[in-house]
Every structure is written in structure tokens, then in C-alpha cells.
Amino acid sequence: MTPLFLSSGLFLGWSLGANDTANIFGTAVATRMVRFSVAATIASVFVILGGVLGGAGAAETLGVLGSVNALAGAFTVAFSAAVIITWMTRLGLPVSTSQAIVGAIIGWNIFTGSPTDTNILSVIVSSWVFSVLLAAFFSLVIFKISKFFLDRAKVHILRIDHYNRLLLIAVGAFGAYSLGANNIANVMGVFIPVQIFSDSTYFGFLTITGTQKLFFLGGLAISAGVFTYAHRVISTVGSEIYKLTPITALIVVFSHSLVLFLFSSQWVEYQLISLGLPSIPLVPVSSSQVIVGGIIGISLAKVGGRGINLRVLGKIALGWVATPAIALVFSLVSLFIVQNVFEQNVAQQERYELNPAVLARMQVAQLPAGHLERLSGQRYHGSEDFRQQLLAVHPWKERELFQIFLYAKIDLIQITNERLQSLAAARHFSPSEQEALKKLSGRVFTHRWQFEEALAQASPLWALKEDTKKNKPWNEQLLKKREKAFAIFARTFWE
Amino acid sequence: MVEFLKRKKRLEDKIDEYLDTVEKGADIFKNGISCYFAEGVEKLDLCLAAISLLEGKADDLRRGIETDLYTQTLIPESRGDVLGIIESTDHVMNLMEETLQKFSVERPEISGELHPLYTDLGNITSSAVACMVQAGRSYFRDLTGVRDNINKVIFYEKEADRLADKVKRLIFCSSLKLCEKIHMRNFAVHIEGISDEAENVCDRLAIATIKRYL
Fold this sequence. Notes:
The structure holds two protein chains of two kinds.
Chain A: H1 2-30, H2 36-54, H3 56-65, H4 71-90, H5 97-112, H6 118-153, H7 157-188, E1 200-202, E2 206-208, H8 210-237, H9 246-262, H10 266-274, H11 287-303, H12 310-340, E3 351-354, H13 356-364, E4 378-381, H14 383-393, H15 398-408, E5 412-414, H16 417-426, H17 431-439, E6 444-445, H18 448-458, H19 472-489, E7 490-491
Antiparallel strand pairs in A: 1-2, 3-4, 5-6, 5-7
Helix pairs in contact in A: 1-2, 1-4, 1-7, 1-8, 1-9, 2-7, 2-8, 3-7, 4-5, 4-12, 5-12, 6-9, 6-11, 7-8, 7-9, 9-11, 16-17
Chain B: H1 2-39, H2 41-71, H3 79-106, H4 115-141, H5 143-173, H6 178-212
Helix pairs in contact in B: 1-2, 1-3, 1-4, 2-3, 3-6, 4-5, 4-6, 5-6
């Protein structure tokens, strides 16, 4: 059944490979500067590398937006996004995989009653706008610098052509890596919480996580799209970018790659933070819209923006709203059909409990827990039921609901000796971190936050630092470790 | 990769050699005209032989450049412009050879007082062609230099027009037979036509340069 459920994600990957590699290698191939087979091979290798090595950051953000916890649900979400992309592409409307998948995930949240983290949502949506503006800025600046040097260097046209070819390949590889790192979350991100693959350690030191295996599979699907259909997209559908000269196309592709890289690289994020600069959120953005942003930058640099087709800009802006909205509605309808007609479980029933400990924790988080006093001591099955109970006592904001769900969710976490002994071999944690875990031996927690607080008390190595920019890298790394520890010790109720 | 760079270097050299050949042709053309009036048709025939050789060499180089550009799929966005510029430049070379050949074959009897004017016309036309070649060189390496050279060509072309007009007026004010007048006029038109063609090449260059500007 799993391969069938994965098929929608694989189709998304195929579609991404078929369409978005045209943005990266379109000019090089269409002008015969690079053979298609060379371009396709480079694109495939680097997309997979990008996905496996750098795809985690953007995937985490998408995971926070909505943690689709059942395979049939993940399939339906990816399927909805895939259908919307295919349908809108056939209608000639601008469509982005990132926007479609975000809409579909929110559809799942609404269908299951799970709260949506509005903070993350606003970060994601503003990133879509910011990515286009950033690409325009980059291409404008790179264009000005290139022009300054090329006007003075007096290089022969043939030599420029030669360097341009080499750079198109290099930038194309970088672009493919960035595309894989940034967009793999769109393709396979919804399947991460389902944990289809487990972690494996090879030769005693090389650990491949389940997520990396999933991303590798997604990368293969993207490669299949590149080899089977990208050539047709490059040669028949055409794109605005082909109208540029190879040098300006190179600048646009480079700006595009840079933007996608910035929106997916944790390393860059930490570097920016360490320099005291504002960091860039790790969010999947639209490759095609970023390319258009780059072209706008060139137009601004060359002719002060005259000739920019405002209709194209209008279509992009419309896409920011229309694509997620349509995907959301379609996802809702599809989830309903899959659950009620095909009788598939699209969401695991989560359990929630409001007890004095949970209410006290909420007060620490400055939530008005007083409204929940009369719900205290009760357990709820399913997100929808819990949401309705909560809304019956107070008109909570979505962000507040998100936090209440976070604290009230019941997880069974057992620190058993058997699992503690397996830690050393798995090499996920340092010896000191393992020592701290061992201090909790034999304890059972019913809420994840309780487990994390106990860990923090056991050792400062497990404690989050103050939420400042400087501490962000530490905190992000720690959250990943906590996630890993949770995955090791958490039990499902039937275990 | 190294071989690819070498091939490009060879093509760069070919283009430079082609432009050198046209520039040399312009010098020989100038000498040919002045020799015709100063030393007679025998000296002009020597110049004609030299320019014919150069014209043949230019043709070979042009074909080589065109073949290389296409077979190596080089400069895809500018290939059409480059080929157009090279071919129209070749046309200028052909016109210079044809004009000297006409002098050699038709041996026009030109009044003595007009000799300096014809010689000047030849010099100005040769200068127009030389500047056209410089504009062509700039197109390949230094776009900022194209405009300066094009302006010079435009200047020389206007000068050639003015001088040719003066020659024609003087011819038709004389008491020569009409057939002689027409014959003399035709040679002024032939020489003047070369600078016109050089200006046409520059018009192409101007457009191609705008397209190449980042």
C-alpha cells in the first residue's frame, strides 16, 4: 500500500523536475550551449544532493505548519496539490508547488480540526513575496557589477561566450542543488511525520535518516521528470527567460539559485545570525516566481523597469492567494472522499487532556488558562472534538489554539533501559547527553513538554537558551535532538 | 576543455586576420586610385593584383569563420549579427576590388584639374573603410569603442558625398562630351558607393552593439 500512497508525492516530484529545471537549464539547452543530456544529468545529480543534504530546513518549516500523521492523509494532501498544479498548468495559470502544498496542508488542518500555526503561515506567505523581491534585487546588483566589469575588461565576444558556457553549467548545478534543497519539502515533506523509512547506519559511522531516504526517493522522481519531460518543456512551452541574452539569463539563474539557497540553507541562516544580521526563514518558495523576480531585476537595471508586464506581476500576486485557496478547498473535498468513500484513515486520532499540570504550563506560556478550568480533568479523542470543546468556552485565536493543542496533546514516553542501551550504537547523542537521558530511566511521561522539561532539568545540554538571535542555532539544533529523543522513547498506545 | 579554448583562440585570430585583410585592402585601394592618376594604369594593375589576392583571402577567412561559428554553435545570440557584419564587410572589400578593376578595364580619361579631387575621394573612402574595420574590431572586444568609430565613418561618408557632388558639378559644368561626362561621373559614383556601403555596415554594427549591450 505504501508505494501507492507515495505515488502522489512522486508525481509532484516528477512535475517539479519536468517544469522547474527548464528555469535553470532552459537557456543553456535552448541555445544549444549545453547538450540536454549533460544538463539533465547535472540537474538530476544536484537535485538529489540538494534534497538529501539540504532539504531538512524548509521541510521542518512545512512540518510545523501541519503535521500530517497518516499515510492516506499525506497521500491525499500531495494528491490535491498535484491535481491543482496539473489543472492550473493546463489552464495556463501560474502555479507554484509550494503554494499548492501549503494550501493542501491547511486543508488537512481544517479537515482534522488541527490548529494552524498562524505565525509560521505568515512567515511562509511573506517569504513568497520577499523571495521575488530578493531575486529582483540580486539580479539588479549582479547585473550592474557584471556590466561594470565587462565594459572595462574588453574581453573578446568568443571568450565571453566560453566563460558563459562554463558558468551556465556551474550555476545550473548550483541552481539544481538549491532547487532540490528548497523544493524537496513540497514533494515529500508531507510524508515525513508518517515515518515511512527508519534511520540506518552503514559502516558503523554513516547514518542515513528516514527523512533523507524519503528525500532521495523524491529526488529520483524529480530526476525522472527531468529526463522524461523537461526537454519538451524547454523546447515547446518556452519561457520568458529564453528571451534574455545568455549573460542576462545567467544572472537571472544565479539570482534564482542564490534565493532558493538562502531560503533553504541552515548554514547561511546561522552565519547571518552570527553576524548580527536578520536571518532568512527556511521556507519552500516558488522557483518560477523567483525567476520572474530575477527578470524584473534585469529590466529595472536595464531600462528602469519600462516594459515590465504588469499583468504577469498581477498573475503572480494572484497566485499567492488563489493557488493555496484552491488547493485548500480541493484538499478538503479530497480528504472527505478518501475518508468516507474509500474508508481510509486520513489522520491518526490524537488524544488531548487538560489537567492541572497542563493548565499550569499554559499559564507559564501566558495563555489565559482560566477559561479552561471547567474542561480540566477530561480527555478528548480527535483534534476536531477538542477544538470544538475549546471554542465552546472561549473564542480562542488560531495561534492560541495551536499552543493549547501543543501542551494538551497526550504522548506516551517511556524511558526504558532497553532503548537507553541502544543510544550508544545509534550515535545520535553525545555521551553527556546520553548521561542526562539515563537520569530519566524508568520514568513515564504523558506529555512531550514534560519529557523535555525533565530533560532540561537533568542537564543544561538539553535546555533551550533564551530566545535571541544569537541562541537560535543552538536552540534549533537542540529541537532536532529533542525530536530524535522523542522518536526513540515515544510509544504508541497499542505498543 | 583546453582544445575547446584553443579552437576559440584560432577563431578569434581568424576574425582579427579577416579585419586586417579588409584594412589592408582599404590601404591598397587608396594607393591604387592615387597611382592611377600619378603613375598610370600599370601601377594601378599592381594594386589590383594585390587587392584581388586579399579579396580571395578575405573570402576564405569569411567562409572559415561562418563554418566555425555554426559547427561549434558559438555565440548563439549574436551569431546572426556577426555573420551579417562579416558578409557586409566582405561586400565593401568586393566593391573596392571592383572599382579598381573598372579603372583598369575602362581606363577613364579624367581631366587633370579633377585628379586631386578623385585622389581625395579615394583617400576619404579608404579612411571610411578603415574606421569601419575599427568599429568592427571594437564590436568584438570593446563595445564602448564602436560608437566613436561609427561616428568617424559617418563623417567620412558625408565628406565623400560632398566631394563626389563637387566632382559631379565640375564635370557637368565642363565642355566635355556627354559620354565623357557620364563616364567620369560613374567613377565618382563607384568610389562614393564604397563609403556608402561602409556606412551601411556601421548601421548594422550599431544595432548589433545595442543588442550586445548588457
